[in-house]
Structures are given as structure tokens and as C-alpha cells.
Description:
The complex is a heterodimer.
Chain A: E1 7-9, E2 14-23, E3 26-34, E4 54-60, H1 64-68, H2 70-80, E5 86-91, E6 102-103, H3 105-109, E7 114-116, H4 125-141, H5 146-158, E8 165-172, H6 179-183, H7 185-188
Parallel strand pairs in A: 3-8, 4-5, 4-8, 5-7
Antiparallel strand pairs in A: 1-2, 2-3
Chain B: H1 3-6, E1 7-16, E2 19-27, E3 32-39, H2 49-58, H3 62-65, H4 70-84, H5 89-100, H6 113-130, E4 154-155
Antiparallel strand pairs in B: 1-2, 2-3
Helix pairs in contact in B: 4-5, 4-6
Amino acid sequence: MDGYKPQQLSTYALTLFNYKTEVNKQSVSVDFWDTAGQERFNNMHPSYYHQAHACVIVFDATRKITYKNLPDWLKELREYRPEIPCLCAANKIDADPNVTKRSFGFAKKHNMPFYYVSASEGTNVVKLFKDAIKAAVAYKNNPTDFMDEIMMELENFELETDKSKEDKEEVSDSGLDSPKSHTDDKPDS
Amino acid sequence: MGDGDEYLLKKCGLKFDPPSLVLAYVDMKTNKLRRRTMPLRDFHKNSKLEEFITELKSAKHGQFVKLIPRGQLVRLLTIVKDKLNGMSLEASLARNSELEKIDPEENLNKVDDETLQRKKLQMDALFEKNRKKPGDPGFEYDIEVDFENQVKIESSGWDSDGSDPEF
């Protein structure tokens, strides 16, 4: 994924990556929104949720508290984006490979795809992001949220002059780590 | 290539009078063990660590300072700072160990900035240690491993302690 253009706007505690790819032979422009430490304020700025088409929610498999915080983050997400696809990842499987033998009920309970990943070694990182992009595009093409339907109507109205699709994906970290270190890794490569 | 190939860091430590960093490293060109003492001039009890480290790295001994892993450098400078603030060495060592301890139950969103920084540095060190980046031997761009369909021998135990009704 050579197309990532990291952009750090520290004033706004915002890290954006743009990534161009194709889904079903359709060109797609993806904006990744990194949480960039905002979780310190106990909630994300509403702009993070605005027109997001997918969410990746991550916990640290070596720290239980980050798992226990997932319901709160999901709750906040659903207040803004009740319908968008959300994918769940257990990070840091490199630190303790045994976690991949354990089951985590949260994702299943909320019907989310679940991934065991290592941002450090790269395990399942590309897979997670590819799936997230696919889910985002599918959702955007067939939104079930009222506001999204309106947005799509407006977009169709503006017509096919703009061929690229803009998708926004939020990367939520559930908390505590340097979210950058999770997401910069692969995208920069 | 970079400095990292010219010198191999063996040890680092502190002197208090005057406050100095001390390094033992191998000069790879001559294969000799060297020792270098770097006085921490202009380091005060109110110095900001981040800024001070940036300055150190661009100053005279910069290429040697860069050999020290960041977490360790922050720890050493914090000990000097504690000392300048009148703390005993023992108390400072205990405080620093506490700052670096990772408690899986501790919500790091609720700790003060210094604590968060120090714990992040510990986690970053693990990240760097296991990290495979482009150009590294064994680097693969897309590593897919299907753990999901493996038989789960146990539950994580994180769902069932009853502490959260959401689970």
C-alpha cells in the first residue's frame, strides 16, 4: 500500500491517511482517520464519526482494561453511526501468541468480524484493512442509515462528474496505546 | 550507512557530579570498546525532557545520544531530574520502576501525562523489538494467518468476570 499519505495535524489531534485502491474494479479513495490520542478525553470528537463508512475497533490483547472499554467506545460509535460496519481486532498477538487460542466474546456478541493481529509483525493487518475497505464500500453503496441515504441522493444528484468514491474509515483504538504505531506500520510500507 | 552501524551500544548509565550520561560502546571500525562521558549542560530541574532530548541529539555528542533507546534515555534523564529536585536515588528508582510498570487492569486514559508517556515508551520498545518493516529480513507485506477457525481451547476469561453487564 504505497499510496498512504500520512498527514499529521497535531493542533487538531488528527492523523489522516489517504489511500487509493480498487474494490470490484472501481477506484476508491479511502481516508483513514487515526484517533491520535483523542481517547484521552474519554470521547472522540464528533467529526470523527461524520460520514464514516466503517470502523475498526482495536484492543490490546495484553491488557484486559482495553477490552473492557470496548462497549463504551462501541456505544459512542453507535450514537453517531448506528449502522456502519464495525470490525474488531485483538492487537499485539506477537507479545503473547497464546491469545490466539483464546476466544473473545465481544465481537461475536455484536456480530463483528474479528481479527487476531500484530501491528508490529504485520500479521493480518493488510487483511483487516482490506476487509474494512470492502465493508465500507459495500455500506456506502447501500446505506441503511437515513442520513446516508440522503447523502447518497445528493451525490447522485451531483452526478457522475466525480468518479472517485470517497470513503472514510475510522480507526478507533479503544484506548490506550499509541494508535499511530498500530496503523502507521503497514500503511507506510 | 548510519551511526547505528558504526557503533554498538553496550551500556549506558549516569554520573551525578556533574550530571552526565555515560556510554560504553564498541567502535565497529576498530572493534574497540570505548567509553564516553557526556555532561548534561543546561539541564535543570524544570527542563522539559522532550525538548532537552531533541537538543541533545543535535548537539556535540548527538550521534552517541541517538544510540540510546528512547525509553532508557527518558528514564536516565528523569532520574537526574528527580535528583535535582532533591529526591533520593532510591526513591527515584522506585518511582521510575512504577512509571514503567504495565498493569493490564489500569486505564491509561485516566493517568497523568508523564505516566502515560513512560508506559507508552515501554510498549513502543516491545513494538520495535518485534517489528518487521520493509527491508528487514523476513518482512512480508501481507501476512494472513487464520486463527479464527482454530479450535479455541479456552475462553479469554475476559468476558465472564461479571464486572461489565455489556459483556
